[in-house]
């Protein structure tokens, strides 16, 4: 359930930011909540699996969590510095990270069904 929550929370943050055309503090809240939900879900699934799976799902999953963390930190810095130019262009990075995040999300469901 945490992974579904991550999808919802992170998607709200990313796509509302893109539609708004500028990074706002409440978007940042959704980035962090999505990251926390994803990290929680990934940790729980890791405990169930028992070991890291060195496959497309595992590798992109680690990459996605790292990118989500960098994304949330960078958004925090942009807002803290009140960098208006960066705030208006931030959505490009947000959509990129969200797209990368979808790879382990989708492969996780495919592997689970197989």
Defining traits:
114 residues; mainly alpha; elongated
Report what the structure shows:
The chain is mainly α and 114 residues long. The protein has one domain. It has four helices and no strands. Helix 1 runs antiparallel to helix 2 (25-49), helix 1 (2-20) packs antiparallel against helix 4 (84-113) and helix 2 runs antiparallel to helix 3 (56-81). The radius of gyration is 14 Å and the shape is elongated. The relative contact order is 0.17. The model has no long low-confidence stretch (mean pLDDT 91).
Give me the secondary-structure topology.
Layout: H1 2-20, H2 25-49, H3 56-81, H4 84-113
Give the structure's gist in a few sentences:
The protein contains four helices and no strands.
Distance between the termini: 19 Å
> What portion of the residues fall into strands of 2 or more residues?
under 5%
Helix/sheet category: mainly alpha
Tally the helices.
4
Could you name the ranges where pLDDT drops below 50 across 5 or more consecutive residues?
A: none
- Tally of individual domains: 1
Helix percent reads over 70%
């Amino acid at each position: 359930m945490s992974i579904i929550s991550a999808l919802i929370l992170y998607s709200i943050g990313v796509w509302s930011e893109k539609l708004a055309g500028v990074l706002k503090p409440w978007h940042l809240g959704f980035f962090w909540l999505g990251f926390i939900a994803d990290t929680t879900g990934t940790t729980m699934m890791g405990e169930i699996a028992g070991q890291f799976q060195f496959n497309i799902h595992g590798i992109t999953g680690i990459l996605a969590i790292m990118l989500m963390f960098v994304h949330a930190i960078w958004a925090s810095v942009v807002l803290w510095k009140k960098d208006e130019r960066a705030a208006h262009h931030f959505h490009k990075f947000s959509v990129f990270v969200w797209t990368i995040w979808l790879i382990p999300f989708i492969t996780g469901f495919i592997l689970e069904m197989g």
